[in-house]
């Protein structure tokens, strides 16, 4: 029996987790935010798939790992998706959460959905190219997993955690300290909004509500930007006074062809 737990904002990590699950026998795909309470997992194979945020782990991923107990005899693999090839930096936090239980680790470069500051999201052409490139990597990864081949492919930046942790604006300590109140910086163009509620169903941490207008609940924002990217009329924007999404590309990476079960349908907005 195998289980893969994933967290995904705009679909990259969901794509990877689903494709991995399809290539591993007797595998169950589970949305990480549905399993946040303390649990013990003793499956033969356990996978963790998530995106890199600010040279580190999304807070919800760190919480899941800290509140989970994985059998030391399980083959535990961790896959981190990233939007640019030199991103990384998750090794230190993973070691704090999982000690030496990780059997396999690898990054996969996908399309970039981060478009605050001078960044912009990847074009559809780049997204599709990286999706195709990731398919070959996923095949290699699943071959290693199915044959229980242990391997950990961290990046150079993972060994510079003492720098990336406090890196100005983009270090994960800055991210942890500031980003979770950043939903105050989202706004909605009420004239453009069609009240389709896509932003509500697309938020991976259930942080958006509709009460006469779209509201952020100020409870658990991960700054994944899913609410911005998924809006079909681009009515949602992020602006913290000097950094804005205005005029940037939206990014969404969800392939309906991968939907095959009722459980997957519930994750269609992931």
Keywords:
single chain, 270 residues, alpha/beta, Rossmann fold, six-stranded parallel sheet, two-stranded parallel ribbon, 9 helices, 20% strand, disordered C terminus
- Order of strands, widest sheet: 2-1-4-6-7-8
CATH superfamily of one domain: Flavodoxin domain
Name of the level-1 CATH class of one domain: Alpha Beta
CATH topology of one domain: Rossmann fold
Please tally the β strands and state the result. 12
Q: Which class of secondary structure composition applies to the elements?
A: alpha/beta
What CATH architecture of one domain would you give? Answer: 3-Layer(aba) Sandwich
Helix count, DSSP H or I runs of 4 or more residues: 9
Major β-sheet, in short? 6 strands, parallel
Please explain how this structure is put together.
- The protein is α/β, with parallel strands linked by helices.
- It has a domain at 2-163: Rossmann fold.
- It contains nine helices and twelve strands.
- It has helices spanning 12-23, 59-66, 91-98, 124-146, 161-164, 172-178, 198-202, 226-230, 262-265, and strands spanning 2-6, 27-31, 39-41, 45-51, 68-70, 75-82, 102-109, 151-152, 186-188, 208-210, 214-216, 236-238.
- The chain has a six-stranded parallel beta sheet with strand order 2-1-4-6-7-8, covered by helices on one side. Strands 3-5 form a two-stranded parallel ribbon. A two-stranded antiparallel ribbon has the order 9-12.
- Helix 1 (12-23) packs parallel to helix 4.
- The longest helix is centred in the middle third of the chain and has 23 residues, at 124-146.
- The two termini are 24 Å apart.
- Pfam families: Fer4.
- It comes from Anoxynatronum sibiricum.
- This is EFR1 family ferrodoxin.
- InterPro entries: 4Fe4S_Fe-S-bd, 4Fe4S_Fe_S_CS, EFR1-like, Fe-S_Ferredoxin, Flavoprotein-like_sf.
């Amino acid at each position: 029996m195998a289980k893969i737990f994933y967290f995904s904002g705009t679909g990259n990590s969901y794509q990877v987790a689903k494709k991995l699950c399809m290539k591993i026998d007797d595998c169950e795909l589970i949305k990480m935010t549905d399993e946040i309470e303390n649990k013990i997992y003793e499956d033969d194979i356990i996978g963790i798939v998530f995106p890199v945020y600010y040279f580190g782990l999304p807070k919800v991923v760190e919480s899941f790992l800290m509140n989970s107990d994985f059998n030391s005899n399980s083959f535990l693999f961790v896959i981190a998706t990233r939007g640019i090839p030199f991103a990384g930096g998750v090794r230190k936090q993973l070691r704090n959460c999982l000690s030496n239980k990780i059997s396999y680790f690898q990054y996969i470069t996908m399309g970039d959905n981060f478009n605050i500051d001078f960044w912009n999201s990847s074009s559809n052409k780049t997204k599709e190219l990286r999706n195709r490139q990731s398919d070959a990597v996923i095949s290699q990864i699943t071959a290693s997993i199915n044959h229980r081949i242990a391997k950990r492919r961290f990046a150079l930046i993972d060994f510079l955690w003492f720098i990336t942790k406090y890196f100005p604006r983009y270090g994960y300590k800055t991210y942890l300290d500031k980003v979770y109140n950043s939903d105050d910086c989202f706004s909605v163009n009420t004239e453009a909004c069609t009240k389709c509620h896509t932003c509500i169903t697309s938020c991976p941490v259930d942080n958006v509500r509709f009460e006469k207008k779209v509201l952020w609940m100020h409870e658990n924002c991960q700054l994944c930007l899913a609410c911005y990217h998924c809006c079909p009329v681009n009515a949602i924007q992020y602006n913290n006074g000097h950094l804005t999404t205005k005029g940037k590309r939206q990014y969404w990476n969800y392939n309906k062809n991968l939907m095959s079960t009722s459980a997957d349908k519930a994750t269609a907005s992931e």
